[in-house]
Write a structure and sequence with these properties.
This protein is α/β, with parallel strands linked by helices. It has helices at residues 6-11, 27-36, 51-64, 78-88, 108-114, 121-124, 127-137, 235-247, 255-268, and strands at 17-20, 40-44, 68-71, 95-101, 142-148, 160-167, 170-177, 188-193, 196-200, 208-212, 222-226. Helices cover 33% and strands 24% of the residues. Strand 9 and strand 10 (208-212) form a beta hairpin.
């Protein structure tokens, strides 16, 4: 593949879409440049480090009728999507509690990058579960963050993070740490409703259990171990983007949803 300069990339009319994979603080700048050049954009999460820049991205995309896809990696994961379906179709009953846990073990170099932002681990990694919970429940009425540095490293990165969310009739918790051993086994989602509970643990590869008081949809009363189709991270996102560009369709996640997710992420990261 021939490498292009930034100017060549933005100025080439044969290029329809650009993926922005720069530093978090540059995501918004590069996304706006691509949109101004008439390109559809896939932008790595989080798409901006402030709300003003996020609103500028959304306004410009709407004005130019271009797609902006944010790289939250579980939007095409069959596990979270099966939980979304169970909630949206009422199979779990009235939801009153949601929880997401996202953990990792990162290098000192990554810690220096994440320490740039007040949110630390919450901003850079818990964003994935916040994305899911906001698309599931909507914009929360209240967000109470707890951001701490407990890893014992010689930096000020907030590596042990938790946030409590409140919706009308429901509570939620997001937590995660940047120094957890075997972290992928301890990434999980839980949704509890009046007719049952869905637990996704781990999230990748997705292992989903739905436990119901009464049968609903395709699920029987009691414990259901849900079979998941084959899944490779990121494949679905780029397949959807290509399909939407070629067939002039909207993305499955709207710009309004992306605004709500981003605002909630900044509130949870004490960066709003």
């Amino acid at each position: 593949v021939r490498l292009l300069t930034r100017e060549q990339l933005l100025g080439d009319p044969s290029i329809q879409a650009i993926a922005v994979e720069s530093q978090a603080g540059d995501h918004a700048r590069d996304t706006l440049a691509a949109l101004n050049a008439g390109k559809h954009v896939h932008v790595e999460k989080p798409p901006a480090d402030n709300m003003k820049a996020m609103r500028e991205i959304v306004a410009l995309a709407r004005r130019k009728n271009l797609l902006v896809q944010v790289g939250y990696m579980w939007r095409q994961n069959p596990g979270p999507n099966a939980v979304l379906e169970a909630v949206r179709k009422g199979w779990l009953g009235k939801v009153y509690f949601v929880r997401g846990s996202m953990n990792i073990t990162i290098t000192p170099e990554m810690r220096r990058d994440w320490a740039r932002y007040r949110g630390g681990h919450m901003f850079d990694l818990n964003c994935h579960v916040i994305d899911f919970l906001v698309r599931l429940m909507g914009r929360p009425q209240k967000v109470a963050p707890f951001l701490r540095s407990h890893g014992g490293f010689d930096d000020k990165m907030n590596d042990n993070t938790l946030a409590v969310f409140e919706w009308s009739g429901a509570l939620g918790v997001v937590n995660g740490a940047a120094m957890r051993p075997n972290p992928f086994l301890h990434r999980s989602i839980e949704v509890a409703g009046s007719n049952g509970t869905a637990i996704l643990a781990p999230i990748e590869p997705p292992v989903l259990t739905i436990d119901l008081a009464k049968p609903a949809g395709p699920y029987k009363a009691g414990r259901n171990t849900v079979r998941m189709p084959a899944y490779i991270r990121h494949e679905g996102e780029f397949a959807e983007l290509a399909d939407c560009i070629l067939n002039r369709k909207p993305l499955s996640v709207s710009l309004d949803e992306d605004l709500a997710v981003h605002e909630t992420l900044l509130r949870a990261s004490e960066m709003r």
